[in-house]
Amino acid sequence: MNGSPLTLVVCLGSISLILSASAPVVSIPTPNYIARSITVKVLSQDFLGSGILLRRRGATYTVLTNAHVLQAGDPPYRVQAPDGRIYRANLPQRLNFGKNDLAVLQFKSAGSIYAIASPGAFPASGDEVFAAGYPAVEERGKKQSLAFTTGKVSLVLAKPLEGGYQLGYTNNIKNGMSGGPLLNVRGQVVGINGMQAYPLWDQPSVFADGSKADERLHQMIIRLSWAVPITKVIQMMPKAENTTVTTVFNQAD
């Protein structure tokens, strides 16, 4: 052998693919890897819930979460990034999501660059999805690690429930995972986790317009976890917030 790179020719019908052993291997980030890169912890005096690194403008990052996550604690809020660093976060006063269970925080990071989420299209019933977030930990001293669960979209409502919830899925989510991402198979964020299946109190399922779901639909609703579609967030964010950013995936711990 003369030491030249090995070349493999693969014929598919009339198409020939030449694969060189010296060619670089391109690694495509998995949804799990992406979730670990874009999911943060939202803190006050204590842990409140999860959030999503949504946008970056210069050194300023915008974190998306649920309104009820912030309501569980008092300012000042803090954000713990995927690399463990903690930043003081502010509430942008100009952003208003109405009665939707959505909120954003902003923080500045002069030294570290973090990945940001890539929004996906509105999913369809039957689509495989992945839910991520940090479950609340009650045992002292136990490390709080990211949870990542698999499932599928089971019910897409024609009109949203109170809080903007419209995507019902089979993934298990726990307390603390509220505000975390719901991703598709491409690792794109399609929703924001916010409601667990089988609530402690069996209250009627009420839509955003004030009407109530009938009993058959209600029983379907309470068996699923629920997310607010990311498309609603994109529609309501100010246009001035849009920016083109090269996504950098940091190595997960």
UniProtKB/TrEMBL annotation:
It holds the Pfam family Trypsin_2. InterPro entries: Peptidase_S1_PA (IPR009003), Peptidase_S1_PA_chymotrypsin (IPR043504). PANTHER family: PROTEASE DO-LIKE 5, CHLOROPLASTIC, SERINE ENDOPROTEASE DEGS. This is Peptidase S1 and S6 chymotrypsin/Hap.
